[in-house]
Amino acid sequence: MKIKHNSLVEYVILGVLGSLVVLTLAVPPLLRDRRCAPVLSLSVLLRDTDNSWTAARQGMELAADELGAELRFLTLTTSNSGEEQEELFLRELEGGADALIVVPSDLEGLYAALLHRENMKKCVLCGGWYIPKSNRAKYCPDCAEQERRRKTRDRVRRHRAGM
Predict the structure, then answer these.
(1) Residue 55 lies in a domain
(2) 109 and 83 in contact (C-beta within 8 Å)?
(3) pLDDT tens digit sequence for 8-41
(4) Residue 72 three-state SS
(5) Which residue, 85, 112, 126, 158, has fewest beta-carbon neighbours within 10 Å?
(6) 45 occurs within a structural domain
């Protein structure tokens, strides 16, 4: 009886030790997965609200789910509005988005918004943003040409009226 009792105790001790070995091998990877990297925040700025992006959108959502990323799709209220897209872009940039995917409606304006935020001025006529070439500039290059022609036309008209 004593021999059976000792062998039974030995089997119990071996079972406990074996289960502890298995737990020490299995638990650390489980804990490591729970302490994974923080969630990435991705923003996608689209220029249109049409259905041409549905396939790409589904693929992006699948990839975001697999990678554990937060994905936000932002569309413009008015189609191809460069100013609205610049505002959304700067808001997401300042809001701490880890990555921005942009389908630009106004490539030059978005480029200026990204690289020259501090130096940009707002055009008095059209309200668009531009990078001034001097500190006296009031108009974007397109409006500056129109305004120059208008002032020349007015000046010549006044000159002819005085003859």
Answers:
(1) yes
(2) yes
(3) 788 888 887 788 777 777 777 666 655 556 678 8
(4) strand
(5) 158
(6) yes
Residue 38 is classified by DSSP as P
Backbone phi, psi, residue 73, to 5°: -105, 125
Give the CATH number, domain containing residue 104: 3.40.50.2300
State how many domains the chain has: 2
Residue 154: both structure tokens together: 């007015």
Contact 69, 39 (CB under 8 A): yes
Answer whether 47's CB lies under 8 Å from 105's CB: yes
In one letter, which amino acid is 54?
T
Cα maximum dimension of the chain: 136
Distances (CA, A) of 57 to 46, 67, 72, 117: 10, 15, 10, 29
Confidence class for position 145, pLDDT limits 50, 70, 90: very high
Chain-wide mean pLDDT for the chain?
A: 80
Dihedral Cα 41, 93, 80, 55, nearest 10 deg:
-10
Residues 161 and 141 in one domain: yes
Q: pLDDT tens across 85-116, in order?
A: 878 877 887 777 888 888 877 777 777 667 76
**Domain assignment of residue 32, yes or no:** no
